[in-house]
Each structure stands twice: as C-alpha cells, then as structure tokens.
Amino acid sequence: MSESSEVVAESVAERFQQLYGGAPDGVWAAPGRVNLIGEHTDYNDGFVMPFALPHTVVAAVSRRTDGVLRLHSADVDGPVVELAVDALAPESDKNWTAYPSGVVWALREAGHAVTGADIHLASTVPSGAGLSSSAALEVVVALAMNDLFGLGLRGWQLARLCQRAENVYVGAPVGIMDQTASACCEAGHALFLDTRDLSQRQIPFDLAAEGMRLLVVDTRVKHSHSEGEYGKRRAGCEKGAALLGVDALRDVPFADLDAALARLGDEEEVRRLVRHVVTEDERVERVVSLLEAGDTRAIGPVLVEGHASLRDDFRISCPELDLVVDTALTAGALGARMTGGGFGGSAIVLAEEADVLAVTKAVEEAFAQAGFKAPRVFEAVPSAGARRMR
Ligand code: GLA
C-alpha cells in the first residue's frame, strides 16, 4: 500500500514552503482510477463504471495575480519551471508540465480569470500503469484553481476542461472517463456514468462487506505507442457511426446489433469495433443491474466477457494482460479483465477474500515462468474523488 494522501499532504506542504518561501494557500488531492467495466465506450458517448483508487496526486498551491505559473513535482528531477500564463500554447510542451499548464490554459480559454499560481505536486498513482495518473494530475490542478479563484465550477465541468486540456493542449485524443472519475467518484462506490451528458449514479460497491476483494495487477508493460493505436480505434469507431448513420455508436441499440453488423458488409475491422462497443455498453448496464440487485458475484463472468471482447474484437490486449486473466480464473477468481486503454497497463481481478493469496501467487508464478517482469499486485478499495485536504 502506498503512503496515505494525508501523509503526502504534509510533506508536499513542507516542500512547497522550501521551494516558494511561504506556506501554500491550500493542499488538494485527486485520485487515479480503475474501470470496473465500460472500456473504449466513452468516446462513443456510451457508459462507463470506474471507481477511484486510494492513490492520489497531491498539490500544494498558492494563488498568484501577476500572470506567472510556477510548477514543481517531487516525482521529476529538476528545478521549478516558470511560465507566463499569457504565453501558454497548445502542443508547445512535451514534458509533464503540459498537464498542469494545459489545465490553466483551458480554464483561461473558457474565460475564467486564472492569473497564475505556485504549484508543487507529488503522486502516489503509479504512472504508465493505465491508472489515470495524468487525469489525476489535471483534476487536482483544476480543483485547486476552482477553489483559489472562486470559479464555482462543478466536478463534471472541471472534468470537461481537463479533457480539453489533454485533447488540445497535450494532444492526446482521450475520452472523458478518467477525468470524471477523478473529479466525481465517492468512497465505497463505483460511478455509473453516461458519457454523453455526464449524468451519473453512485453505485454502492463495498466488496469487503461481502467477503470479496478486487485486485489490481499492474503488468508493468508501459503502454507506449498506445496513443497511435488508441487514435486508430477511435477513428474506426467514428467511421462505424458514420456508416450506420448515427451520431455515435451509443445510438446503436443492443437489440439491433446483428442488423447493424450486417449493414457494415465487408468492413470487417469496423464491424469488430462496433460489436465491442455495443456489447460493452450492454455489459455496463448488466453490471449495474446485478450490483443494484445485490448479486455482486454474478458480475465476474461479465468482466470476463468484456476482456474477451477487448482481446478479440477491439484487439488491444497483450500477452501479459491475457496471462493475468487466464491465470486468475484458473486459480479460482470470480472474474478478471484488462482495465483502461490497453496495450499493457493493468488488469483487475475479482476474487473471494479466501482466494486472494492463491490467485496472487498463481499470477506471480505464471509471470516468472513466462519470463515477464514481476507484476505489481495491490487491492483496490473504492476511494474518494478529488477534494481539498487543508
Ligand atoms: C483511456 C482514456 C479513456 C478511455 C479508456 C478506455 O484511459 O483516457 O478516456 O477511453 O482509455 O476505456
């Protein structure tokens, strides 16, 4: 388990003082996430169901009024980076600083008077693990600016601005799930989110109370080169929607899937993408119904179906992710699937509490035997969304 956000908040505030010569106006935290179900549906206006991790990005921040933005991170070697808020320009920055400055840019571009800040950050969200460390970094900065400049924006509005920062300023064509999860999740709940209008329902998700656990297995395969592939999948989905004459694949009802696939004729690749997205939206709705009916164990097979669809139709899994899923199921897990964007990153495993050790051991042994890097396994407890800590 990583250090608690409270402990990190203390050291982040102290370091802020050393760097900038005064106490911060406040300290904020925003979590990473895992997605329970609903993968690659968000840019198709569909459904997702993430929950927040206890791992957060913590930011100590003071407001400035002179147009200067100063950034520093405990996780990156290097001096304080100083920028002029007036000079922030999309795709001008290829470093980590593009995320926080992109948020300031997006807020200003939307007409909010953000006149500068001193920021020091520290993260306990594993980076490159598909657990949304970038979204957490964006959201923590957005929330701090919202509070310090009295912008009065709601969580979902901050999420939209963070997505814009990432799409336009950083230049990554991501959907809205990760930012909304970081901004809006609640402890003990998964977030059932309609990504079309960002309407949401908090679904109680307390596995421990029911004798189960959810493990995150970080394969430690960095999802490099994934952005090009991500963009290709996204473009393929958009092509599918256009060929079917709908605004987004969300508008293809599950009951009409076969007819829709038939209409796609020999567009085999588009057909596979469409089939994944339409069936995945249905799986999210099924998981919500099962959880609301108190039938939690029954979501296991739905997670497994989701993995098969991502592996065979969407084609974004990798040998390490498949090995986690297959091994965990053989060792008695209730369900397992890759989570996040794919091509590496993490898988989730749902298991009876009594089986956790055996499942973990089986996965570790299988990785050793296959000659893969040792995976990082930890239990994920649905935790709080972004908040002010002091
Ligand atoms: C990444 C993106 C999200 C979403 C997932 C796949 O995490 O940032 O917007 O598309 O991949 O579900």
From TrEMBL:
Example GO biological process: galactose metabolic process
Keywords: ATP-binding, Carbohydrate metabolism, Cytoplasm, Galactose metabolism, Kinase, Magnesium, Metal-binding, Nucleotide-binding, Transferase
Predominant cellular place of this UniProt entry's protein: cytoplasm
Keyword Acetylation: no
EC number in record: 2.7.1.6
GO molecular function, one term: galactokinase activity
InterPro entries: Galactokinase, Galactokinase_bac, Galactokinase_CS, GalKase_N, GHMP_kinase_C_dom, GHMP_kinase_C_sf, GHMP_kinase_N_dom, GHMP_knse_ATP-bd_CS
Reactions mediated catalytically: alpha-D-galactose + ATP = alpha-D-galactose 1-phosphate + ADP + H(+)
Compartments in which it is found: Cytoplasm
UniProt KW Cell division keyword: no
Residues forming the catalytic site: 178
Amino-acid positions noted as binding substrate in the UniProt annotation, renumbered to this chain: 39-42, 230
Pathway: Carbohydrate metabolism; galactose metabolism
Protein family membership: Belongs to the GHMP kinase family. GalK subfamily.
UniProt name for this protein: Galactokinase
Gene (UniProt): galK
